[in-house]
Specification:
globular; 5 strands; about 190 residues; about 20% strand
Length: about 190
């Protein structure tokens, strides 16, 4: 199994067309350097190579002070196309900023949760393990389900025959051994 260091976006420069485009945008705008004090990590379908034309760049960050984080986001990105920012103080002091660069939507999530402990990152790591263990047909089925409008976690849960809340069920796979995951794929 090839293990990707998702905490360094260099891997995108060697990926598919969308990953290379994402690397170019993120590098030219210097987003990760700007956010470096908030441990930014790109999560979601683009890092996994199961994206579609509607996929956006989701970046998770961790802050200790929401006001400092908000100030930096507004300072650096508020002039970008369709910029918006919102806070949900009931969800771990969550702050979400959206904007577009070259028709690519970028969504930055900030919270008190350390970046590698966010559900977005944890889902991606589990899904990557599954994709590494599965055959190419499984990957293609995920992409097809997503093209048909299904979200990523529900698509994985559907193909793995997991019942219940797909977001919770995927997280339950975190401690599964490779053998246990392979059994689910059969």
């Amino acid at each position: 199994m090839t293990k990707i260091n998702f905490q360094n976006i260099e891997y995108l420069s060697f990926g598919n067309k969308k990953q290379k485009q994402s690397y170019k945008i993120l590098s030219e705008l210097d987003i990760f350097e700007t956010l470096k004090n908030f441990t930014p990590i790109l999560v979601g379908t683009i890092p996994l190579g199961i994206d579609n034309e509607k996929s956006d760049l989701d970046i998770v960050c961790c802050f200790t002070n929401i006001l400092d984080f908000r100030k930096l986001i507004e300072e650096k990105f508020s002039k970008q196309k369709n910029f918006s920012i919102r806070e949900d103080l009931f969800k771990n002091n969550l702050l979400v900023a959206n904007f577009f660069i070259d028709e690519m939507e970028i969504e930055i999530y900030g919270s008190h949760i350390y970046s590698t402990q966010t559900n977005g990152y944890r889902h991606m790591i589990i899904e990557d393990r599954i994709l590494q263990l599965a055959d190419s047909k499984f990957r293609q089925k995920i992409i097809e389900l997503k093209k048909d409008g299904m979200k990523t976690e529900p698509a994985f849960a559907f193909l793995l025959k997991l019942e219940g809340n797909p977001y919770d069920k995927i997280l339950e796979l975190e401690n599964y051994s490779d053998y246990e995951l392979i059994k689910l794929l059969l």
